Amino acid sequence: MTTVLDVQRFKDEGRRFAVLTAYDFLSARILDEAGIPILLVGDSLGMVMLGYPTTLPVTLEDMLHHAKAVARGARQALLVGDMPFMSYHASTEQAITSAGRFVQEAGMHAVKLEGGGRVVEITRRLTEIGIPVMGHLGLTPQFVHQMGGFKVQGKTDKQAAQITVDAVALQEAGAFSIVLEGVPSKLAAAITHKLRIPSIGIGAGPGTDGQVLVLHDLLGLTTGKPPKFVKRYANLAEQRSQGSPRTLGEASEFVGSEEVRYGG
Ligand code: KIV
Fold it and tell me: What is the pLDDT of residue 180?
């Protein structure tokens, strides 16, 4: 099984790695069998699976429900549960309780939290009690209203300096990796160089240690114009509109007569 020590080894050995989101049993099993080393049960499931406009309405119970399904599907991947909005904001004690539920009830091996500042202390406390933490800086979607939209962060010197300070502080507090989302490539590469722990980029250019993508973006299941950084390996939404069954009869032909087994 992939552990946080392996993830550190990837960086130490200069091996770049992939992280993908997973929200359900079958996709977790497929990605796990494909050898993806880290699966993130991201709160992006709020948009992708639940149809919300942002990640803010996603609850801890929603996250645990999906995380449990992912844990049933995966064998080898390091599983990271994304702490949703308001599951760690009230107090450090609340953060410990929420993170503990990800590990104890949902079978996650680590949690991810957005932001620097007070999240640094929470990271210290969680790692002290044995819950590994993945940080998340830059365009942090739970701050969408504060940021005035989903906008690239770190463009000014002041912002760039703050993100760098936060990244180092999270590392010193014990984080095992840090997602850098929506920051200029040069800044992401500079932070990656400065950090001992791996950085994981999304919309942050090619200079990070790992790259994370939302599975549904990669498969072309999300409709509309994809973000510039998304590499689509398929365009399933388009294929569906060209060749999908529209009636029950067509659907049974489409599936064929072989028994379709789910689970197990
Ligand atoms: O929720 C999510 O999927 C994420 C990744 C995009 C980093 O936070």
Answer: 98
Which atom of ligand 1 has the smallest separation from the CA of 212?
7
Pocket test for ligand 1, best of 24, 38, 43, 44 (most atoms within 8 A of CB): 44
Burial track 62-85 (b if 16+ CB lie within 10 A, e otherwise): bbbebbbbbbebbeebbbbbbbbb
d(CA 196, CA 8): 8
Contact 29, 69 (CB under 8 A): no
Q: State if residue 95 touches ligand 1 by the CB under 6 angstroms criterion.
A: no
Ligand 1 centroid, distance to 179 Cα (angstroms): 9
d(CA 7, CA 80): 12
Residue nearest to atom 3 of ligand 1 (CA): 42
pLDDT value at residue 196? 98
Confidence of residue 235 (pLDDT cuts 50, 70, 90): confident
Q: Global pTM?
A: 0.92
Residues serving a catalytic function are: 181
Q: Which residue minimizes the CA distance to atom 4 of ligand 1?
A: 42
Give yes or no for residue 227 having a pLDDT over 60: yes
Both structure tokens of 228:
């510039």
Nearest 5 degrees, angle CA 185-CA 190-CA 171? 115
The per-residue pLDDT for 248 is 45
Three-state DSSP class for 180?
Answer: strand
Give the per-residue pLDDT at 240.
Answer: 62
pLDDT confidence of residue 242: 66
Beta bridge partners of 177: 134
